[in-house]
Design brief:
Mean pLDDT: 78
Number of helices: 4
Shape: globular
Length: 148
């Protein structure tokens, strides 16, 4: 990771990080917390390696401030702290009946995308916890060890 990166990660994607790196929990704005269904994201700083659990390789995509990027909700792994996420359906109103929801991502920076959607078993494992349990694991020191 570079020092200037301000990417916010879902803790379920983080597998490991090396010494020299530090992280802090970033409480989301109410709007982003409601839309992403995550109250807390992780922000990493410092030199080192960050291991992520994804379905396929990661692709960094640079955002153009004047042009929105449309991303499938399940394919967005990390996004910059200061972008605007808007749920939408890519296409016309008839398409909204048959298509999955997308994020309209606007702002500057780089987003990390996974090319495929997680399989059902991985998705069940990653979303099996309730909001309160996930928040307590992140807020309480060593919460991931004590709260199962």
């Amino acid at each position: 990771m570079k020092e200037e990166d301000d990417l916010l990660f879902d803790f379920r994607h983080v597998l490991f990080y090396t010494s020299g790196m530090s992280f802090r929990t970033q409480v989301q704005t109410v709007r982003n917390a409601i839309m992403t269904r995550d109250f807390v994201k992780m922000k990493f700083r410092g030199p080192g390696t960050l291991g992520l659990l994804t379905f396929g390789p990661l692709y960094p995509v640079r955002l153009n401030p004047g042009e929105p990027l449309y991303v499938d909700i399940q394919c967005l792994v990390a996004y910059p702290e200061r972008v605007r996420l808007t749920p939408c359906v890519y296409g016309n109103t008839l398409a909204s009946q048959y298509m999955n929801y997308q994020w309209e991502v606007t702002g500057s920076g780089t987003v990390l995308l996974q090319p495929g959607k997680p399989d059902k078993r991985l998705e069940e494992h990653m979303s099996g916890d309730g909001l309160l349990k996930r928040v307590l694991r992140e807020v309480i020191p060593f919460g991931g060890v004590f709260i199962k």
